[in-house]
């Protein structure tokens, strides 16, 4: 039986929100380029840049990892979305975690879980974009202390 006295909650919301605002501001430049340019080729280039910025703006998500009450919860939401209840992307009892691994990468770290229940075995893979080293260390130590019981 696992003891869950160590409640943990880490998030990349501040960084993701700041990046979303930077992308919104950056989108002004291609719009101005399209307005001020009268050449078709330049308009295509500025339109492509604008589409690329919008693609990243739409895809960005803030991630919240929470370990409380014996459950591990992963929530993801767009950083510019209204505040309120966010349905968990994944929620499972900590007792089902068979193995976890944090892989460090150049752009993002990766969190892998192996979950074993009576009926199934699942693998969960999560990219940890914009989490700093302190948050990764906190996650690693909290998970190791939970799994060592």
In spatial order, strands of the major sheet run: 1-2-3-4
Rounded to an integer in angstroms, the radius of gyration calculated over CA atoms is: 20 Å
| SSE arrangement, N to C | EHHHEEEEEEH
Structural class: alpha+beta
Q: Provide a count of the helices.
A: 4
Give the CA-based shape: elongated
> Percentage of helical residues?
25-40%
Question: Could you describe the 3D structure shown?
Answer:
It is a single chain. By secondary structure, this protein is α+β, with helices and mostly antiparallel strands. It has helices at 13-26, 28-36, 40-59, 133-147; strands at residues 8-11, 62-68, 71-77, 90-93, 97-103, 109-116, 121-128. The strands form two sheets. Strands 1-2-3-4 form a four-stranded antiparallel beta sheet. α1 runs antiparallel to α3 and α2 (28-36) runs antiparallel to α3 (40-59). It is elongated and about 65 Å long. The relative contact order is 0.18.
């Amino acid at each position: 039986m696992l003891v869950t006295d160590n409640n943990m909650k880490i998030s990349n919301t501040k960084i993701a929100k700041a990046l979303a605002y930077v992308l919104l501001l950056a989108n002004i430049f291609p719009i101005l380029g399209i307005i001020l340019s009268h050449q078709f080729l330049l308009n295509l280039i500025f339109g492509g840049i604008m589409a690329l910025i919008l693609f990243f703006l739409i895809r960005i998500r803030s991630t919240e990892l929470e370990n409380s009450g014996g459950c591990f919860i992963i929530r993801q939401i767009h950083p510019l979305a209204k505040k309120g209840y966010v349905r968990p992307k994944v929620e499972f009892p900590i007792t089902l975690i068979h193995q976890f691994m944090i892989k460090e990468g150049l752009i993002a770290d990766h969190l892998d879980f192996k979950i074993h229940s009576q009926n199934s075995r699942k693998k969960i893979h999560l990219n940890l974009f914009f989490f700093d080293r302190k948050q990764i260390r906190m996650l690693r130590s909290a998970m190791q202390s939970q799994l060592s019981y």
